[in-house]
């Protein structure tokens, strides 16, 4: 079965904090809502389907064709903005982008950090509420 690419394209990044470890990257694509209950099973054993509970995120939005350095700098900026908020899990983060590779300008990128809940669901999720941080503004959706 062919499934068109959906957005955002999300990558979970678990940074390495030491000389003998490796940073973990897990890229994911959303399954269209009409396919959720009957998602095709991947034939490649390196692929898997993961169902995420509703989650809340702290989000930083930025524009441009992001480089690896940009993603890292923006993740540090978001971590700095939420450093006093103990409800935000800062041990990993997500990158999310919405635009196709051929779009050169006005690209939207986001860094997400999970807001912990009392029940502590798994750390991958849909977005029940998004708190967005831009360079100059903060707003809630």
From TrEMBL:
<dbReference type="InterPro" id="IPR006917">
    <property type="entry name" value="SOUL_heme-bd"/>
</dbReference>
<comment type="similarity">
    <text>Belongs to the HEBP family.</text>
</comment>
<dbReference type="Pfam" id="PF04832">
    <property type="entry name" value="SOUL"/>
</dbReference>
<protein>
    <recommendedName>
        <fullName>Heme-binding protein 2</fullName>
    </recommendedName>
</protein>
<feature type="region of interest" description="Disordered">
    <location>
        <begin position="119"/>
        <end position="141"/>
    </location>
</feature>
<feature type="compositionally biased region" description="Polar residues">
    <location>
        <begin position="120"/>
        <end position="132"/>
    </location>
</feature>
<dbReference type="InterPro" id="IPR011256">
    <property type="entry name" value="Reg_factor_effector_dom_sf"/>
</dbReference>
